Amino acid sequence: MAEAAPLRVGMIGIGTVGAGTWRVLRRNQEAIRGRAGRGIEVVAVAARNLARAAAVLEGAEGVELTDDPLRVATHPGVDVLVEVAGGTGPAREWVLAAIAHGKHVVTANKALLAEHGGEVFAAAQRHGVAVAYEGAVAVSIPIVKALREGLTANRIEWVAGIVNGTTNFILTRMRDAGLTFDEALAEAQALGYAEADPAFDVDGVDAAHKATLLAANAFGMPVRFADAHVEGIRTLQALDVACAERLGYRVKLLGIARREAEGVELRVHPALVPAGHLLAQVNGAMNAVLVKGDASGVTMYYGAGAGSEPTASAVIADLVDLARLQCQCSQGAARPSVPPLAFHAQADLPVLGVAAVRTRHYLRVPLADGAAVAQVPLVLADCGVAVQSLVRHAVPGDAAAPVHALVVTHPALDADAQRAAERLGALPACAGAVARLRVEVLE
Ligand code: HSE
Fold it and tell me: 107 CB under 6 A from ligand 1?
């Protein structure tokens, strides 16, 4: 039987991810053709900087290069649009235009899908095309495919993970080298890990985009980024990283989506994880995701969370899926058979407010008078928060420095722990801001 015609790809963006996709498609073209059942060819590229794009594409024949993204999105010779330019304004228009012209879309743009996924997926369904986005979540790790296909038998109970490489790098450097947040961020930027606007990384927004997509796939709910609780690591003190270590924990920025009877917890925040937990071993810019299914139990996925070719790996996997889809359907249009958010219809699950979330908590209370440590459990008890452990921490060699009461609580309502932190901060002996971080044991 003759091989099907190549899948024709138009790309918007040929920066870090686009160039990686181009390189890997060329380098592995025989293996990719063997797996896809036909070739995958880039036929058009839109770029802001044409000279730089021409340098990336050097030696390529038959690739139309333009500075007009809409031309690529609506190009009659393109079967699939690969959108790797990022952003949510123009990217939304390009993707919707491609869909309206009957083209499948592959994107690594988590912001676009977390914020406009409802509109984009509905348009794709109307036009019978796919919107694939494996590269948008924990890049190299095939977690979307795992949730949508491999774990499809399960009632998913929770998904939790380290899904931002930049902040994990920063936290690793704060722990390993005792750096402050600012020093570690400067290193992350020098190595090119951070987003163009590092606020997206350090304030937890990027992780929340990804957690939103994971929650939608895990629980069959719409993308509800606006309802996510998002805290970053900008105000994290090096002292708390060190104190957590002393207590047997590591600080990680976690994205957590948990199914409860009344709805879904969807939250991103720094948390203490037991030092012996697998997530505590995930260092540098690596990502890892844990999924708890009722039948599978806990499964874990680990890999590079950022970078040119790790993202290309996911983008091309989506392209191969589309190439295979069209191979199976030589007559008429090939419609995607796997729903983009895992379920054929979304349930209207609410996102629960963080005040009602129940976790353990770490509290660090700086006290001018060491004798005041005894007041700490009394205040906590008064707020309905039970103490699991209490340790006195004095700064070595500095008798004038405050003594810190380091508390780990039993599971308590977030609202109660917050009230307790405020009450502790108002104690006459309190000598500075009370630090509060959630503790996640992820059993
Ligand atoms: N800035 C992102 C990160 C890149 O650090 O994880 C990949 O989404």
Answer: no
- The rounded Å distance from CA 110 to ligand 1 centre is 10
**How many Å separate Cα 77 from the centre of its chain?**
34
In ligand 1, the atom with minimum distance to the C-alpha of 193 is 5
Place of tokens 């009722």: 294
If we measure between CA atoms, which residue out of 405, 411, 375, 371 comes closest to residue 390? Answer: 405
Q: 315, 106 in Cβ contact below 8 A?
A: yes
End-to-end C-alpha distance for the chain, whole angstroms: 52
Element (H, E) at 201: helix 199-202
Given a contact cutoff of 8 angstroms between Cβ atoms, the answer to whether 356 and 413 are in contact is yes
The CA–CA distances, whole Å, from 46 to 9, 104, 205, 310 equal: 12, 17, 27, 22
- Residues 6 or more apart whose Cβ sits within 8 Å of residue 221: 215, 264, 346, 347, 348, 349
Q: Which atom from ligand 1 is nearest to the alpha carbon of 163?
A: 6
Exposed e or buried b per residue across 149-166, where buried means at least 16 C-beta atoms within 10 angstroms of its C-beta: ebbeebebebbbbbbbbb
Average pLDDT (153-179) is 96
Region 179-207: what's the mean pLDDT? Answer: 89
Is residue 210 part of the annotated active site? The answer reads yes
Element (H, E) at 268: strand 263-274
- Which pLDDT does position 327 carry in this prediction? 67
Q: What are phi and psi of 80, to 5 degrees?
A: -135, 130
Evaluate if residue 169 carries a pLDDT over 90: yes
For residue 434 and ligand 1, the question of a CB distance below 6 A is answered with no
Contact 20, 311 (CB under 8 A): yes
- Residue 155 tokens read as 């009632």
What share of the chain has pLDDT > 70, as a percent?
98
Question: Crossing angle for the helix pair 308-327 and 29-36, nearest 10 degrees?
Answer: 40
Band (328; pLDDT cuts 50, 70, 90): low
Q: Of the residues 145, 210, 252, 292, which is catalytic?
A: 210
Going along the chain from its start, the domains and CATH numbers come out as: 7-139+307-327 (3.40.50.720), 143-304 (3.30.360.10), 358-439 (3.30.70.260)
User: Which atom of ligand 1 is nearest to 136's Cα?
Assistant: 8
Name residue 72's amino acid. V
